[in-house]
Design a protein that fits this description.
409 residues, alpha/beta, Aspartate Aminotransferase, domain 2, 2 domains, eight-stranded mixed sheet, binds pyridoxal-5'-phosphate
Length: 409
């Protein structure tokens, strides 16, 4: 319906910071086309424990429906928070009491709550270069100064972090928090070594900085001998605010995430959440309690690990076989993604995407993962969602496009 109303003038200024994802727009072109997509971050639906979840949902509604279908506390259903504490203990994370836990509507809401309650305009926030795109978007709304620290195969380069923090401090700046995905990073799939984990905690302690640890992927580590210790386990001072989610280990549609941290912070997060959605779906929380209790989550993780390891290996093999010389790609030890860097800085992967889609393959251009706007010649490739048999063909097509482009550059 056409309208004469200028809606723009009714909107708050901050909506100008809520950028529509250009990538989403670009990827819309894939709709209705036969495209092998390495673009999303979706779990493989064959991993969802559909029959078990159907049974649990039925039991929960019929047997505990009076509670499961009702409103519930903003912090989360107490029984679920206690279940989470015990689940976290298995990962070596000891939380003092359920007062130190809040259930969120996915980790994405946790990121928004952190941004909303902690960032004043111009506060310095440190992130990895690259980092999770939607965390950058969530934080940007509160106008921080984002400072990026490069990563390598062992995660964030903490020596560079230390230099940067020293420089900022000597310029009279205070760093508020460091946002990190230490294990099985998104988008790179790399993991912070134990030495660097300790170094990171030391730096935070020395300069009185909080750490926001985002951990959706440490459950999906495919190789032996990799250190998957969450930073939270090394936290003696209550400096680490730990975020996790059932999205990748059970089902993202349930929208269940959580934050572990000191009660003082959790209480503030609770107030922020209250005005946003009152509470996370009670029904989802009851389903989650039973899924953890009945071992469905553990079994899903084991199944997913087998499926994703094969897919990761297929992608790495195909890259080895087809990708042009001089390209670099991360070797993910876990998670769902890898990062590919093309040998020429002349190639803007955002411009390459429409051509790739036309040829039958999609990816996410890398620049949006870089807080400093670099990374033009990188892309993120997801290996969990495409079918195993599509992966080699997708990488072959992508490599052909890159070769063609390099000849032109
Ligand atoms: C690093 C990271 N943090 C947070 C999220 C958000 O997850 P959810 O809101 O589904 O829990 C994702 C999802 O892909 C992610 O990769």
């Amino acid at each position: 319906m056409s309208t004469l109303i200028d809606y723009q003038k009714f909107l708050a200024e901050r909506t100008g910071l809520m950028r529509a994802s250009e990538i989403r727009e670009l990827l819309k072109i894939t709709e209705g086309k036969k495209v092998i997509s390495f673009a999303g971050g979706l779990p493989d639906p064959q991993v969802f424990p559909k029959a078990e979840l159907a049974e649990i949902a039925r039991d929960v509604i019929l047997e505990r429906g009076d509670k499961a279908l009702q409103y519930s506390p903003t912090k989360g259903v107490t029984e679920f928070r206690v279940t989470l504490l015990n689940y976290m203990k298995k990962k070596g994370i000891a939380v003092r009491s359920d007062d130190d836990v809040i259930v969120t509507t996915g980790s994405q809401q946790a990121l928004d709550i952190v941004g909303r309650t902690m960032i004043n305009p111009q506060d310095v926030i440190i992130v990895e270069l690259p980092t999770y795109l939607a965390a950058l978007n969530a934080f940007r709304l509160y106008r921080p100064t984002l400072v990026g620290i490069p990563i390598d195969d062992n995660g964030m380069k903490t020596d560079m972090l230390e230099e940067e923090v020293k420089k900022l401090v000597s310029n009279g700046k205070r760093v508020k928090f460091i946002y990190t995905i230490p294990v099985a990073h998104n988008p790179a799939g790399v993991t912070l070594s134990i030495e660097r984990k300790k170094h990171l905690i030391e730096i935070a302690s020395q300069y009185d900085i909080l750490i926001i640890e985002d951990d959706p992927y440490s459950y999906f580590v495919y190789d032996e001998g990799v250190d998957i210790t969450p930073l939270k386990t090394l936290d003696k001072e209550g400096r680490v605010v730990y975020l996790s989610t059932l999205s990748k280990i059970l089902a993202p549609g349930l929208r269940i995430g959580w934050i572990l941290g000191n009660k003082t912070l959790i209480d503030v997060f609770e107030r922020a959440k209250q005005s946003s959605d009152l509470h996370t779906s009670t029904l989802s929380q009851f389903i989650a309690i039973e899924s953890i209790r009945r071992g469905v989550v553990d079994r899903t993780v084991e199944r997913a690990k087998m499926v994703y390891k094969k897919k990761r290996d297929a992608m790495l093999e195909a890259l080895e076989k087809y990708m042009v010389k001089g390209a670099w790609w991360s070797k993910p030890i876990g998670g769902l993604f890898l990062m590919l860097r093309l040998p020429s800085t002349e190639i803007d992967t955002k411009k390459l995407l429409p051509e790739a889609i036309e040829a039958g393959v999609a990816f996410v251009p890398g620049a949006s993962f870089f807080a400093d706007g670099s990374g033009w010649n990188t892309m993120r490739l997801n290996f969990s969602y495409p079918k195993l048999e599509e992966i080699e063909e997708g990488i072959r097509i992508l490599s052909e496009i890159v070769k063609k482009k390099l000849k032109q550059a």
